[in-house]
Amino acid sequence: MQSFSQIYIMAVFAVKYRDAVINALWRKKMFAVIGQTLKEIDGVMPMAIGGTDDHVHILFSTNGLVGEAEIVRKVKSESSLWVNNNGLTRCRFAWQRGGARISYSSSAVKDVIAYINNQVEHHKNISFRQEYESILVKLGKNITDFDLPEDLV
pTM for the whole thing? Predict the structure, then answer.
């Protein structure tokens, strides 16, 4: 008998200092770089990638051979390298430390994909901080337990 593992993770991370520098002109290309990076990691498959000018959401499936922290570290590293090598921002591009990684059941994947694909429209009505706090509350977390930076606006 072979082992089987299928885990769905949504990772959310922001541009360093919450700078709104992910330009719509090259955002989709950056998402493609993120998707390709995910495909190159053993047992990982991208399912949805979306975001706005200051943060990104990715949903990927994994068989658990590589930990999700390492997966996100690789995505952040490769995507920031791509932005910097192509001179797409006036200053050196970097991702903020940390972020969120949330697991989902297979029954929720369709809704999570729709949510990620709707990020630009979604953020016309809600700030990233409001969204992040909402995610914590939905997960049953007390937001006062988290040291949310003031720049998370």
Answer: 0.85
